[in-house]
From TrEMBL, chains A, B:
GO terms for molecular function: DNA-binding transcription factor activity; transcription cis-regulatory region binding. It comes from the Bacteria. It holds the Pfam family Peripla_BP_3. This is LacI family transcriptional regulator.
Amino acid sequence: MDGPSAARPHKRVTITDVARHAGVSTAAVSKVMRNAYGVSEAMREKVRAAIADLGYRPHAAARGMRGRTYTIGVLLDNVRNAFFADILDGIRDELRHTDYTVLIGAAGFDPEEQARTIRSLVDRQMDGLILIAPGTPRAEVLATAASTPTVVIGHHDASDAYDAVVDADDLGAGLVVDHLVALGHRDIALVSAPGSRANKWKRTPEAVLSEGYLRAMEGHGLAPLARVHHTAYSDDGGFKAGMTLLTADRPPTAVMTGADVAALGVYRAAHELGLRVPADLSLVGYNNTALAALAPVQLTSVDQAGHTMGSAAARMLVERVESRRDRAMQTTMTPRLVVRATTGAPRGR
Amino acid sequence: MDGPSAARPHKRVTITDVARHAGVSTAAVSKVMRNAYGVSEAMREKVRAAIADLGYRPHAAARGMRGRTYTIGVLLDNVRNAFFADILDGIRDELRHTDYTVLIGAAGFDPEEQARTIRSLVDRQMDGLILIAPGTPRAEVLATAASTPTVVIGHHDASDAYDAVVDADDLGAGLVVDHLVALGHRDIALVSAPGSRANKWKRTPEAVLSEGYLRAMEGHGLAPLARVHHTAYSDDGGFKAGMTLLTADRPPTAVMTGADVAALGVYRAAHELGLRVPADLSLVGYNNTALAALAPVQLTSVDQAGHTMGSAAARMLVERVESRRDRAMQTTMTPRLVVRATTGAPRGR
DNA sequence: CTCGTCGTGGATAACGTTTTACAACATCCG
DNA sequence: CGGATGTTGTAAAACGTTATCCACGACGAG
């Protein structure tokens, strides 16, 4: 009898136990675990049996003291963004049948909080990091990447310190503008995210998107009509942007946004102002998340293949962790327009 | 010159470096870090200064070898469920100003995969675990809880091995039925999740919800009209359920679902069958996620206060980790009905 | 025969922390 | 002043792995 919680934590099986049970050294067991060079088939068999007998599972913290932890850390600002969920699925599927485990740090939007989370991941000896559109200063990411293999998703700023996976957001913007112009629109507004606050990322997804939008408008001779409204990518942000744009002197006949959820906010604003979609207003989202396909919405959007981006990132990262590659590389995905029910010819045509 | 990646990984600052820099023992530094007993104010000051000077950050893996890792692991089946995002936010907010970091393992729905993820978290020496509606066999959760403090969210099965946070789903179901009956409905169907496959959880959220629904129907003398349709909580699952129910001989005039996303699937089915909501069909969701409030939907739903559930879980877990409490406890939240635009009087009234 | 060489397995020193035990010293009380 | 009682700091032993040697025997070439 020793107190109420007598349920003894049942001591862990260690490598020493396995070694003793198999009648070999711990070094041998370790070698088998990592399938390192210098073990005979007989030895391998013997050790495997002992491991199975005892149900041995290596202690990750102890591993982290010397070698790998077999853990990949993912930094995310926002769990609510369905696009990120696609990326996560891609990462998970790629890593499913390997020894690696994926752990997610959800940091929120605050750059300081994100930096803290990145440090946490590094302190916990992650073998590699996948940072999804980090808002931390670029310098900090570079410093992290110097000590831990890192893949950055989203930002177009290239570097030889980290690998990168991006979507050709400028092409995406072009697809949308072309589509709308073909329908007869001329007055097309873009709702994008607020610019980075001096954190040294020059080519964020938003920036590249805006760039592509402006270039496309220019290409159609519509440069004077171009206007970009900045707001948070959220339902509420979209709503406010919509209110501002649609109550302006000369409201646009079409609005494209950098995120589906923001497009739904604009939709709500239009609804409230008595405008019908797409009769009075054409609306285009971005990312083609599940939201866009949803029941009464049927939002025209741009598909970014989040799943593919995630698996590409995971593959690239593992290559680096296992040092099968020592040069930085960058993967660019091509976006695709998915036309649904929220775009049509403008009324006054 | 030593190869292309000459950017030396810049050796970590260790506790030894701090001790040397402050002219004290490593033990003293350790005590200050954990603010343990037996350090003078002067010592504390000296060490603090050294830590700041060197920018020391403790190595979590090394910590994990003896004491805590200051990491809380969260098991999640599905990142897409917005309700879980609320819970996560609650956990994060509760832990924000502590030393703990939250790491999320996203496992998917497969029980085996979930079990693997739980093991991964344990192997990585998490100080505590929060399991959100785990699909793994109950026995496995009990075994885990025996060695690591654990909070289970969702399942109503109580135990003295783990703490639990649940919503009174039976009351929630009652609220919905009462609301619909008050509007004049009698033929009310429930769309719930498929039952657990012999994993020994008897009182899953779905089960308790169904129970509450049946009891409420009975209370109104509508037991003969009660019917429960089981399907996956997804847009597609909801769509199929809706199709089945609404094309039946005697279709219900109102449908309540166990998740908002499924309600939207039913909405889509109704739409496709030419039924208008709420004129021809009243529809109620569950969880009051952001989806429910969305633009053109305005779904009546039941609010579960996910944020509060998350912070309660985190608070309870930390109490256990720091062994300020040694008895299991269970927190039950009261749900609240949020009436929006998808419920109204039945037509044939 | 002698040398290397190769293939295999083991001893053992890290890795960076926490924690236990104890030494040194100060303080208090009778 | 002697002993009991605190207080503050340190030395050193874990913790469970990995990786670097080294030893040993077998074998093939000269």
